[in-house]
Design brief:
With about 575 residues, the protein is an alpha/beta fold. It is built from 23 helices and 23 strands. The model is unreliable at about 225-235 (pLDDT under 50). It has three domains: about 45-275, 2-enoyl-CoA Hydratase, Chain A, domain 1 (Alpha-Beta Complex); about 280-470 and about 520-570, 2-enoyl-CoA Hydratase, Chain A, domain 1; about 470-515, no CATH class. The strands form five sheets. Strands 1, 12, 13, 14, 18, 20, 21, 22 and 23 form a nine-stranded mixed beta sheet that branches. Strands 2, 5, 6, 7, 8, 9, 10 and 11 form an eight-stranded mixed beta sheet that branches. The protein has a two-stranded antiparallel ribbon with strand order 3-4. Helices cover about 40% and strands about 20% of the residues.
Length: about 575
């Protein structure tokens, strides 16, 4: 029987870092963490207390109160897309979280994707990027085969911005295609309708397997005001499409309930009827355990300054159970580290960039910078990714990468071809892949390591993440290259022209630095969520459990017949 040879990795903090370094790293992370928490609180407040009071005056719960009733007591909510539209204004209005909450949450022990219109933000309207955010959450649920719950309280498009959310390939109508795909693939969908559900908001729940309507809810293609204008009929929206109509006559909803709490109780009851989690089965007799080194130490392990190195082993040791890991091909492509560890007892594959300097196999005795993709590392990662896909092992990509190697030698060694092989592999994998941008996510390296364009199920950033083609200073040099000498110094002796070039380079650098801000990336949906380093372990537990929860939809080999064993056997020296 082939066993998975997990071995201890990582070192205690004080074995590799001094007290000054540890305190400096923690202080920098704490400052960024404080900002993250403050911004999360600001988003959770929606449009503020006045709008919360309006909801309560109607004897309704706010959206976040509904989610609290729905989820298991004491379970944590893992939001995705929280920062969509962050820092963006539409006229004088903002749309916190794009007016919709999307989150992984437990209901009767099952991971569920909740999609809930925020009724404290323009009555749950759809803003620019709201449809795309909903579709992204639906796709996560589809890829993981976890149930979807829609808590619908939506007054339709935010009409002043309809031109940015109605048309286009991923416009509002694409939500209903995702509804259909989920239904076609057997993913359970349950809807609670709590208030205004106009136009697209009315269509959204219909394809669900169960639809519950409260007495205050209605679903209509057009509301009362439009009917009055078009047909001169004076009716209320409840008359047109309330529960009396859709439960009693049209059959577009299943159950009529008196209030929010009852609807949520019945939704929980429906979810309880579904098969339970397969997590314990796929643990293969192992117990879920914490890392030997606490995950909270990651904020001391990883320096805030992206130019300062750290040990990849020390990161993994604070993410995997018991800090045990099986590294494959350890002597090849040393700039990359690949292998398998357990997360909450469930096997996960890991790919992580090493930092600092590493051996250069092309030049004996020489060193080269890690955090860059070279030939051997690319080939190693490609083989590992393909094997994980064949074995049904979900993959976690931990990026801290500056890009591909460049230059004459790199081209002669065929990096374009090796890179294309890796891109093909990651584009065709069926196993769930999750990407974490630890610090740098630069150039084509970001693509090759399953960045967002390669559709990981979830991509997380940290407050330290810098996502860009190249650093601001480097790009400024490239932009003004014709005005610089070989040492990148300004050529001209004219004071006025020199000042103009200096100002131009500073402007370019500042603009690029701003573009690399993780909050900007999250605002425009270039990443799914920003999480603190100390939260990464909990996130990986959630994603591992969600990946293994369902059965029968993807290959999941017994560990003794993994393809990874073949790679390991062939890489060992003979004798």
């Amino acid at each position: 029987m082939a066993k998975v040879p997990l071995a201890p990795i990582g070192k205690p903090l004080d074995a590799s870092l001094g007290e000054v370094e540890i305190e400096r790293n923690r202080h920098a992370h704490a400052e960024r963490g404080d900002m993250l928490r403050a911004r999360r609180e600001q988003i959770a407040a929606g449009w503020g207390d006045k709008y919360v009071e309006r909801v309560h005056a109607k004897q309704k719960l706010t959206t976040r109160e509904r989610i609290d009733v729905l989820r298991d007591a004491g379970s944590e909510l893992f939001e995705v897309g929280r920062f969509v539209n962050w820092g963006v204004t539409f006229g004088k209005s903002e749309s916190p979280a794009a007016g919709v909450v999307t989150a992984f949450t437990r209901v009767h022990g099952r991971w569920t994707m909740v999609i809930a219109n925020d009724n404290t933000v323009a009555s749950g309207s759809w803003w620019p990027q709201t449809p795309e955010k909903i579709e992204r959450a639906q796709e996560m649920a589809r890829r993981l085969r976890i149930p979807v719950v829609y808590l619908v309280d939506c007054s339709g498009l935010y009409l002043p911005e309809q031109g940015r959310s109605f048309p286009g390939r991923t416009g509002a109508g694409h939500i209903f295609k995702k509804n259909s795909l989920l239904s076609a693939e057997g993913v359970p969908q349950i809807a609670g309708v709590f208030g205004d559900c106009i136009a697209g908001g009315g269509y959204m729940p219909i394809i669900s397997d169960r639809v519950f309507m409260t007495e205050q809810a209605y679903m209509v293609i057009a509301g009362a005001a439009l009917i009055k204008g078009a047909k001169s009929q004076s009716l209320s929206s409840l008359d047109i499409g309330g529960p009396e109509v859709h439960v009693g006559q049209s059959g577009c909803a299943d159950v009529r309930v008196p209030d929010d709490e009852t609807a949520l109780e019945l939704i929980r009851a429906e979810l309880a009827k579904l098969p339970g989690s397969a997590n314990d089965y796929y643990r293969h007799g192992a117990e879920a355990c914490e890392p030997h080194f606490p995950a909270s130490e990651l904020e001391a392990v990883v320096p805030d300054d992206h130019r300062v190195a750290y040990d990849a082993e020390d990161v993994l040791a604070r993410l995997v159970d018991h800090s045990l890991f099986w590294e494959l091909l350890p002597d090849r492509g040393r700039e990359m580290m690949v292998g398998v560890g357990r997360v909450d007892g469930l096997y996960m594959g890991f790919v992580i960039n090493r930092q600092g300097l590493t051996d250069n196999p092309e030049h004996h005795g020489a060193k080269k910078p890690a955090g860059v993709l070279y030939k051997e590392g690319i080939a190693k990662v490609s083989a590992f990714s393909r094997a994980c896909d064949a074995d049904g092992i979900p993959i976690v990509w931990l990026q801290d990468i500056s890009g591909f190697d460049i230059g004459v030698e790199a081209e002669q060694l065929g990096l374009l071809g090796y890179g294309s092989s890796l891109i093909y592999t990651n584009s065709t994998n069926q196993t769930p892949m999750f990407t974490v941008l630890l610090r740098k996510a630069s150039g084509a390296g970001y693509y090759a390591m399953a960045g967002m364009p390669y559709e990981p199920v979830v991509q997380l950033s940290t407050p330290q993440t810098r996502l860009a083609v190249m650093e601001g200073r480097t790009l400024a040099i490239a932009a003004f290259n014709t005005k610089l000498d070989d040492d990148f110094e300004i050529l001209t002796d004219d004071p006025e022209e020199r000042a103009k070039i200096e100002a131009g380079m500073k402007d370019v650098e500042a603009r690029i630095e701003g573009d690399m801000d993780p909050y900007k990336s999250a605002s425009q949906m270039d990443t799914d969520e920003i999480v603190a380093f100390g939260e990464l372990r909990d996130w990986l537990v959630t994603l591992a459990q969600a990946a293994y929860q369902a059965t029968g939809y993807r290959r999941g080999k017994n560990p003794r017949i993994w393809s990874l064993h073949d790679i390991d056997a062939l890489s060992r020296p003979r004798g």
